[in-house]
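## retry 2 of 3
previous attempt timed out at serialization; input unchanged, resubmitting
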Amino acid sequence: MRKLVAFAALALVGTCASAADNGVYLGVGLSADATLDGGQFQSDLDIKDRPYKLILGIRPVDFFGVEVNYLDFGTARRAQVLPDLDVSAKAKFYDAFAIGYLPLPLVDLYAKAGLVRWDADVQLTTIAGPQPRVSDSGTDFAYGAGAQLRFGSLAARLEY
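## retry succeeded, writing output
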C-alpha cells in the first residue's frame, strides 16, 4: 500500500533561538492533498476527515534530528462505484525518521529516512449487505524532503 501526502506543518521548538533552534519540538500537520492508488475515481471520493499528523522530535545539533509521527488519513468513502456498491477506507501510520538538515538563514532544507508502520481497513457494502472488513498492515522504508521556514522558536514546514 503506497500513499503520498504533501503536508504543511507548524512546529513549536522548546529552546531559545540560535542559528537553528535545537532541542525537543512538537508539531501538528494538515494535509494539503492526498493521492490515492487508483486515482481514476479520486474526484468522487468523499473524504470525511481531513488527514492530520502529530509530530514529536528532537534536534540535538543544527544538522541532525530524530522525529516520530502519528498520521491519520481519516475515512474516505466512494459510493456507487458500481450500482449498489459502497467502499469505505481508513488508514493510520506510525513512523520514525532520522532527519538531515541544511540550515540556511531563516530556512532549513531537509531530507528524512526511516520506517513507517501502517494499518488500513476497507469496508465493502454491496446489494447483499456489508461484506467482511478487510484489514492489512505492514512496515516499510519511507523517505521524504521539505523546507522549514523559521520564525524565532516557531517554524512552518512544507514537506513531501
